[in-house]
Structures are given as structure tokens and as C-alpha cells.
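Hi there. Long-time user, first ticket. I'm pasting a complex I've been working with (about 488 residues overall). I'd like to know whether the download I got is complete or cut off, because the file seemed smaller than I expected. Thanks.
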Amino acid sequence: MEAGRASYARIVATLIRVTGDWALAEDCAQEALAAALEKWPRDGIPGNPGGWLMTVARNRAVDLLRRTAVERRKLEEVAMLWNPSSPPGHEIGDDRLRLIFTCCHPALSLEARVALTLRTIAGVPTGDIARAFLVAEPTMTRRITRAKTKIAEARIPYRVPEGAELVERLPGVLGVLYLLFTRGYDADGEPAFADEAIRLARLLVSLMPDEPEVSGLLALFLLQHSRRNARHDASGRLVTLDRQDRGRWDRDMIDEGRAILGRTRVTGPYAVQARIAAEHTAEVTDWVAVAGWYDRLSPTPAVQLNRAVAHGYAFGPAAGLALLADISGMPASYLLAVEADLTARSGDRDRAVELFRRAAENAPSEVERQALLDRAGET
Amino acid sequence: MKYMMLVCTDTEPETDLSGAPDIDAWVEENDASGRRVTGSVLGEPSSATTVRVRGGETLLSDGPFAETKEVIVGFDILECADLDEAIKVAAAHPMAWTGRLEIRPLVDL
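Hi, the file is complete. Here it is re-exported in full:
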């Protein structure tokens, strides 16, 4: 049903633009998918699956609109949709891009933006979104409904901002995708929506091919996701990057990520992070390069911590330990673990073991505690 | 589309006011463009009277109905194409720097 997934956003986005009715747009798209699930296995997949779905959705929309007091002009406009014989000009730009910018509008709360993007653009069922974000389904339904009501009542526009406004708004859209990629874990602790985030990033790249940060974000996703199968060992323990079985990395994804970076200028934080991820996929990590990239990122506590590691590996443990001393706002176990690792590299193994044990005592989860105790044992 | 813009004080105002806009210029520009329908400064909260009718009786109390540190000091009714335009108008108001602005759509019933 990849064709269905790809068409879903297009159907919803265009029906929203023409009718302004979010519920109608989603209902029609879902009914088209349901019809496909029923008919395609029986009659075979049509030659143009996307076109088939759009036609079903459009006809349903016309049916529904005829029953309401909708203006004749609007009804005609819907009836003309996705019709090859329609006069040109009915598709103005790509409606999916408008939908993305509306769902990610900064006047909505971040959690509402994430939920709305998953529901409306990716077509993920509300129940799945609720489970991944650890809230009850009715709560998630309310959150999404409230966001849609605000869009309508406060008249959040259905358009792609331009010029300076686009520069201001694009990071917010990318932030929603990044959050989708990193948060929302399913019961096994796997990111539930990493694939969705990659799919949406691909869509955004196809719609905004000239925005380096959009390409940078996709490259970052691909390079990080390429290691998904190597991150846990057979017993579910977390495996740090330097100990992962590289044979389990997804080479195709790495190649694609690196190829995107090869044609993408570094203008912002996502491309920088993608460069770092790419360095880590090299046979031998160029730590001087990694340290240099970390120097270019805004110094959040997590960036500072990784920067200390990179400088420690690039310029000697003392350089890393010096940077470590300045970090605040990071859990003690993370700081201790890095200090332990750098101390071990400096040759003071007794102190390193002691630090790994202290890090384990402070570990936020059992998996991490065990991993740190293992390190203590190996040092 | 009409929006009510509530002009409020804020406990954490911007401290660097170099580059902050001028209120007279804001009023003049938005009156001229028709985006500001009307608006006014309000009297001190201490001059407010809260009115309720309960059990047929008119109950009055001195002061605003909500005691908060942030106080509504004025309002404007804006006529804008959409929320983005209203946000732009609000962000150009000096009280967006020294206080905070709340924009709410007026709802036709």
C-alpha cells in the first residue's frame, strides 16, 4: 500500500485547500484507502494506483458536499480535481507543502504539531500516536481536534511562507520532524516513527530541493537510522557506537546519506549533525573533523558532552576532561561515564573503574546501568 | 477576519529596548492600512468593577475578576486576512517588547 500512503497526503492536502474542511478531507482519503483494501486484492492493483485513489476520494467528496449547502462553485472545483482534462491552474504549487507548514505552525503547541503532522500528513491512526506518546487515546483525539479547531477559528493560513518568513518558519517544521524521529518510542523502546520521519523528510526534500537544511535533515536521519540494527545486542543491551557490529549497519542508507551530503552545503545545525554522523560511518573516525563540527553547534548540554568526547579523542584525554569540567545541566551518570572513558584512555585504570561504577549507580535505566558495569569490568 | 488584541503587562519585559517600535507610528500605520479597527488604553485595574447577577441580584465587586501580576492595559480590534498577518501586526507593537499581546479571533455567531 505504498501507493496509498503516498497518495494519502496529496488527497488530504488538496481537499483541505479546496473545501477548507479537514474532517471531510481525511474521511474521503480514508474511505479511498479502505475501498482499495477491499477491491485491489480481488480485482488486482490498477495501472495508476494513485490516480485511482484520488478519483475515489474526489467522488466521495462531491457526494458528501452535494448533501450540504456548499456553494456550487466549490462543488465544481472539487469535481475538477485530479482530472487530466481539467484546465491547468488547479494545482497551484504543492498542497502537501502548505499542509506541512499549517500543521507545524508555531501558534500550535509543539505536541499538537507533532500529533497533527502524524495524523494528517502521514495518516497514522490516532490510537498509534497516543500509544507512542504515552497518553490515552481520547486525550490524543482531543489534542488533535483542538489543534484543528484553532486552525479554523484563529484562521491559521494554508500557505507556504516566503522570503524572510520562510527562513523563520522552516526550522520549526524541521524541528517537528526531528522530534518525530527521536521521540515517540514503541513498547520495545524502538522509535516508532523514525520511518515516518524519514518518509516525511523525503517528501520535504522533493518539495524544497534548494533548502540545504532540509537535505541535511534527511541525511542525518538516514545516517543515524542506518545503525538501528546494531544498537542493541542479542540480549537487548545498548551497544555504543565504537563497539557496534558494522556488518549490521545498513550500507545502502549510509551511501544515500553520504551522497546527499556530497551535494548539500552546510548552512545550519542539521547538516552539521549529519556530517558528524557521516564521520562516524567511516572506517576510521576522523576525530579532529568531528571535534571541528561540534565546535559549530550551539552548546546545549548534550552537544557540550559530545564535544568533550570528540576533543578528548582528537587532542588527548586532557583536552576532553578540561571541556567536561564546564558542563552543567547533564545527568551525572553521562558526565561520569565520559570522564571514566577519557580517564581510562589517559592510563589511570583504577580511577576509571571507580568512575564507571559511580556512573552505573546514577544510571537512569537498567540497560544503561548494566552497560556501564560491563565497561567497569572491562577496564 | 477580526481579532481582539489584548495588550498586557509582563513580569519579564525585554530589557534592551534599542530598536523597539514606536506606538504612535504603529497606530498611524495600522489606522491608515485599515488593519486597526479601533482600540484604547484601559484605566488601572483598581478602577475596574466586576458585575455578576446571581439569584436575581446584581453583585458588584471592586477590581478585576482575575488577580494576576499580568494586567490588561489596553486592547485593539484588528482586521487581518489571517493569523499570520495579525501576528505581524502584534509583533510590531511596542508592548510586544515590554509586555505581551494576546490575539484572539472574534467569533461570528
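A couple of notes from our side: The mean pLDDT of chain A is 89. Chain A touches chain B through nine residues (CB under 8 Å).
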